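User: Structure tokens for this complex, please. No commentary.
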Amino acid sequence: MNIDLNARNTKVMNRFDVTSRLIAKLGSEEAVIGGIGNTNFDLWAAGHRPQNFYMLGSMGLAFPIALGVALAQPGRRVFALEGDGSLLMQLGALSTIAALKPKNLTMIVMDNGIYQITGAQPTPAANVADIVAIAIGSGLANSAWAADEEDFERLVDDAMAASEPGLIAVRIDDKPGVGTTRRDPVQIRERFMHGLGVREPL
Amino acid sequence: MAIAEQQASPQAAQGSGDRSWHGIVLQTLKRNEISLIPYVPDRVLTPLIKNLHADPFFTTFATAREEEAVGIVSGAWMGGRRGAALMQTSGFATLANVLASLAVPYQIPLIMFVSERGTLGEFNYGQSLVCRTMRPVLDSLALEHHTITRLDELEFIADRSIKQAVTTQAPVALILNPLLTGGKVFDK
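Assistant:
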């Protein structure tokens, strides 16, 4: 496969803006899993909702956690937000998801080619690998780059009605997250379970 | 070694009357409504994995890495579905980060079955070394774990441990020792 990384014709967008656009489209208590670091900081900043889950570690597990939620609640749509560096840690998860084919899982990759939070070092994939090509090669045929913000919103609309798992990749700038998630893992987990209707508060 | 021989028959029944170690594990999972079973395979676990796949009560599937299985079980728990991850000793050795940053701090009743290699006849030096890291990692996080050596204790330990994990919202590792399973030996 010959991939011209400069030919994607994709606009460089902003993580907080794209995340806010996703959240604005959610009207059915969809679950959203925010990956470690800036990805969940911007999810937090976009407006806390009980159906959001924020990771404070376990880099690379946003998609597996989201898969678990999707398998537990097949009637609820689940979105997972992950950074490109995080995804590189767990590429095998893409094949697991492709094999299980959950209809209600949509993966969003925020790709800036760097480990922004640790000092903006380039990832090994930067300039050599194409995340959408990796996803398609892993068995996720419904994978696409968002060309710009409007295209991202269109892809999210498509995902809402999809009958197979899908992946949307977004090229983003090198800006840090806008907010900072409150690092209270028990409360995050408990609120999430309330938001998913699994539990009632005491 | 009578226990190991007792369950070595490949013709072991799959019904509720199955008193092989893997039959007891399967029935105990079912009785506790644990239906999602991601695993990274292991030779000793093969009859259990095969019977889990054959039983439509369970959603049984392989993952590429053990920490992926932990993520899936954690997400499923939060979504109201119970799961358990199956792995080998060497796979457990990849989990320190996800235990310390997801299962323990978020108080998730992660149930792990670990097929123990590296002891009682191990033939691979690396396996015997990695086995020695398992209990220190579990102990360093004060994580509940039991090493099951006897068939007559398996159901009690597994059933009680699963219930304790759920009610105390804490992970548990159930280590399946070669005394229970027969283990893997050089000529197999």
